[in-house]
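stage 2 :: seqdesign
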């Protein structure tokens, strides 16, 4: 049986084929002023072979945390020294590049030559047969240790066939997937990453995948052809931006023209026998996932939420905070750990509030940057009108709402089954949250989504009113009929919030339009009264109450 040192010294021998290891060991010893440990030599060899630190820890039977500490206090600093790089700037994937620039690489690796030799494609090592496509280069990554461990277990140990990683825009889905792939890539014969942003037709997508996975050999472009390759070898396939293949303006689940066969692809990859894994990344959960996923099934679903406290604090420290500022905990909670939101707002706090978090929280409402607003706009525009109506009601309510309450206040605009379908669709899009209060299921919006939807509602209602005022278009009233602006029976605190966040901005926009267009307010009231007074509506309407609140009705 090998001793620990013999085991360590036998790891990653392939590094010697391409690197002058003896010279490297000697120069590292000179830089550090002490003898290089066997574990440091093994880690160096592994890094030169492009293994991740997590994979090194597994091979060495160390914990990832302990190995990180060991490398940070020794090998990493010595590598920076011999590569003439600033202290504390080392990233593990840069080590081969740095050392090659300093002349430590001796020859092209045999595996690299095999990679380009058509006659030897079957012997390509797993680490080399990879196509990262449009996957982003993730420079920084915070927290999500438990999430990564769970997803890695699903893929590596449980042999999950189909995994959907979903969440709202900007929440960190793609970054999480990149780190997951970096951790597990060595477990597969080949790996390919593709973005579906252009909504490739199914046959075209499969042909693209097979061209790489089957080493450019002549093949078909059907789902059956792909499954045959997934059976022959262990492949890891990642498809990002999956929501681009789904139809917008409808409930979740309908595919765009040309992408309809994606449904068969997912169903068969999830249910048939093979040794590969397909990972989907998107803002919406495909119904093929939702119908069949489960902890005991080869189809799994993972919803990405905001960062936990530790990860959020790591992000904020990297943005210039010490982690001890007053209000930092409240800031993380207010934005629910949303990494995009925290990056945006941290810049605002540093630039406009001199880093004073408490002052920012005191002076401003929830802030949305252009990037996050664009992401939410893209997702909002994909919704059906009923889904938008539901979101508007949840934003107005500003508190958890039960299905029965929502149903009664939406009047006859949707049947009970249609409303349930819309709520389910919104959950699959990661746009609403579900909680339980006293045994009853309640629905609500997280703060970032609430802020955006409230703004959309105010803008749309204001457009209706301004169209009445400037174009005398009395047919423009829609949301004014279907949604209440301020609830009569709501708690005082909620009413005050509705007045401040909904009614006042609408009245301000109307006043501006009236002033700019020299409109007689009394004349406008008379026109509205003559049009609507005593006129029945198909549904119970909030029109007159809303117009009265705005000042356009007696």
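stage 2 :: out
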């Amino acid at each position: 049986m090998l001793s620990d040192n013999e085991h360590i010294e036998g790891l990653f021998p392939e590094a010697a084929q391409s690197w002058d290891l003896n010279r490297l060991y000697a120069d590292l010893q000179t830089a550090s002023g002490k003898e290089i440990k066997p574990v440091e030599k093994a880690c160096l060899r592994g890094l030169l072979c492009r293994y991740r630190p997590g994979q090194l820890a597994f091979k060495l039977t160390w914990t990832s945390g302990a190995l990180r500490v060991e490398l940070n206090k020794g090998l990493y600093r010595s590598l920076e020294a011999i590569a003439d790089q600033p202290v504390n700037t080392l990233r593990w994937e840069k080590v081969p590049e740095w050392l090659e620039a300093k002349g430590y690489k001796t020859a092209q690796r045999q595996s690299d030559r095999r990679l380009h030799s058509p006659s030897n494609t079957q012997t390509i090592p797993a680490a080399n047969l990879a196509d990262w496509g449009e996957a982003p280069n993730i420079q920084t990554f915070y927290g999500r240790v438990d999430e990564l461990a769970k997803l890695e277990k699903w893929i590596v140990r449980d042999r999950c066939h189909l995994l959907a990683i979903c969440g709202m825009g900007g929440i960190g889905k793609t970054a999480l997937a990149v780190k997951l792939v970096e951790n597990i890539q060595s477990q597969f014969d080949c790996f390919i990453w593709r973005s579906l942003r252009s909504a490739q037709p199914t046959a075209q997508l499969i042909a693209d995948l097979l061209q790489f996975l089957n080493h450019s050999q002549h093949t078909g472009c059907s789902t059956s052809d792909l499954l045959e390759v997934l059976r022959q070898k262990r492949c890891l396939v990642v498809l990002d931006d999956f929501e681009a293949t789904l139809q917008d303006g409808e409930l979740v689940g309908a595919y765009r023209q040309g992408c309809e066969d994606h449904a068969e692809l997912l169903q068969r990859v999830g249910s048939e026998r093979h040794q590969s894994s397909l990972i989907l990344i998107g803002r919406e959960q495909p119904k093929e996932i939702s119908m069949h996923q489960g902890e005991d099934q080869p189809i799994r679903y993972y919803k990405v939420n905001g960062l936990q406290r530790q990860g959020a604090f790591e992000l904020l420290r990297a943005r210039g905070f010490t982690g001890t500022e007053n209000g930092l905990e409240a800031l993380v909670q207010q934005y629910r750990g949303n990494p995009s939101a925290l990056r945006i707002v941290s810049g605002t706090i540093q630039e406009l509030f001199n880093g004073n978090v408490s002052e920012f929280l005191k002076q401003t409402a929830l802030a949305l940057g252009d990037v996050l607003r664009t992401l939410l706009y893209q997702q909002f525009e994909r919704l059906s009108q009923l889904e938008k109506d539901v979101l508007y009601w949840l934003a107005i309510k500003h508190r958890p709402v039960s299905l029965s309450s929502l149903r009664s206040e939406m009047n006859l605009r949707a049947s009970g089954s249609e409303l349930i379908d819309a709520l389910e669709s919104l959950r699959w899009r990661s746009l609403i949250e579900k909680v339980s209060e006293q045994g009853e299921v309640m629905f609500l919006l997280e703060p970032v989504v609430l802020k955006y939807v409230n703004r959309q509602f105010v803008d749309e209602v204001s457009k209706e009113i301004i169209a009445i005022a400037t174009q005398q278009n009395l047919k423009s009233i829609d949301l004014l009929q279907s949604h209440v602006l301020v609830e009569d029976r709501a708690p005082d605190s909620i009413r005050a919030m509705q007045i401040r966040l909904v009614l006042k901005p609408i009245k301000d926009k109307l006043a501006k339009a009236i002033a700019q267009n020299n409109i007689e307010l009394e004349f406008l009231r008379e026109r509205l009264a003559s049009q609507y007074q005593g006129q029945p509506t198909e549904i119970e309407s909030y029109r007159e109450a809303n117009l009265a609140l705005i000042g356009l009705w007696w």
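stage 3 :: structure notes
- Residues 108-128 have pLDDT under 50 and may be disordered.
- The first helix runs from residue 4 to 9.
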